[in-house]
Amino acid sequence: MSASKILFFLCLSFIGGIFFESYIKIPQFLIYGILFLGFSLVFLSLIFKKISFVAGFCLLLLVLGVIRVQISEFTIATDKLAQLNGKGQVVLTGIISDAPDVRDTSQKLKIKVGDSFVLVTTQRYPEYNYLDKVKLTGKLEEPMVADDFNYKNYLLKDGIYSVMAFPKISVVPTVLTYNIGTYLYSKVLFLKEKLSQSIEQDALPPQSLILQGIILGNNKNMTQDLRTKLSNTGLRFLTAISGVHVVILSAILITFLLFLGFGRIQAFYFSIIFIWLYVALTGFTASGIRAAIMGSIFIFAGALGRQNTSSRTIILAGSLMLMQNPLLLIYDIGFQLSFMASLGIIYLKPCVSYLLKFIFKEKCVELSEILSVSITAQLFTLPLMIYDFGVIPLVSPITNLLILPVMPAILALGFIFSILGAFSGLLGWIFYVPCWILISYFLKVMDFFSQPWMSKTLTNVSWLWVLLAYLIIASTTWFLNKKISILREI
């Protein structure tokens, strides 16, 4: 067995340990039994060469995944702020550790108090800034758990275990002390704010709302009607910084650069640079950084060329991210979707591209590549989307076929327009006109295909259905790969 294959099985075992401990809580005596069996197999493999040491190490990595989840749960249970939840009024002093999340009538502040975090909801005004030192007087509460949304689990992955609603806030005068990280991040947030202001001043809704979502990952001010239409047409992922967004855009960008005559290695380098610049402009959010890591690994895996090597690279990257934060596997839908989208493009895209050649022949090669990226990524993420959101966008393949080819142009023109618009309204307008045309086309497609009958809503979807769906998708993908490999040999 090759070293890469051994590493692949070890990573899968580690992920399996996290999964089982998160869902079924393995009894302690069984953990000790697995641990003893693992050490026994490793020891016996040193004496008897016929006994594989891989099985023993796989059991040990499975236990490591279990222990990693238990450590994370212990950290949550012993968090000092979380222990004050529901205990009445408290007075806290902390630092605003991220850009304020400003809405129409309110804003949310992520505040670091010691080694803990609290998410504060307060009035839209007065305005607060990153690194402001504030004094809070209010009640700490545990995040809500509703029938349709578990806000507690949503915040867990970001290390937030307490919330505070509309406390008394006062800014504590202090001299700001920057390190390299906070200084650069403050400049990134300043640039993001300038670009957002440029879009708001020179563009009108709904074009400005779509552009802010695509360029800056800011969809907070979108109307509910616009959100619903994006979801029903399968285009919601394009207006939020997510792993699926970054992975699909990376694949399309590489295809676009190759079409322009760039070499494959050059296209890969430019794509990775673009991803990190893109995430920087969105403010280096936690979800954005995870998306950039997954997108970069996806591009690197594509450069390796082989399916098995590429998928093992993705699995290794996922394992390292879960080692740092095991809660991503269960509570971060963005991590799950980007992981599945990457595997879909690696394994199923070659099959779909091969089949599309019979439709497009040798014409429109780039279009068939873009279509195959969209189909495979969305097919591999569809069961999770249905489980988490309960909506099946029946027209998603059509809307993606119509929209994805113009996304590189929207991104390029949108970036140029927002940057130039911050300095000169006239220069900004020169690039805004073609950008406005493309976004208006985006909106027309969305409006036309957002009829109620074009999507299906499901409720109470069982995770067993999701498991069955992925078994069917995996077996079908295996069958198609086998058949196409035979056809290519003929």
Explain this structure to me?
This protein is an alpha+beta fold. The protein folds into three domains: 3-77, no CATH class; 82-171, Beta Barrel (OB fold (Dihydrolipoamide Acetyltransferase, E2P)), CATH 2.40.50.140; 197-489, no CATH class. Helix content is 65%, strand content 10%. The chain has helices spanning 3-24, 28-47, 53-77, 151-156, 180-202, 207-216, 224-232, 243-259, 264-281, 286-304, 307-324, 328-331, 333-347, 349-360, 365-389, 396-403, 407-421, 425-448, 463-489, and strands spanning 89-96, 101-102, 106-113, 116-123, 133-141, 162-165, 168-171, 391-393, 455-457. The strands form two sheets. The chain has a five-stranded mixed barrel. The protein has a two-stranded antiparallel ribbon with strand order 8-9. Strand 2 and strand 3 (106-113) form a beta hairpin. The two termini are 29 Å apart. 39% of the residues are buried.
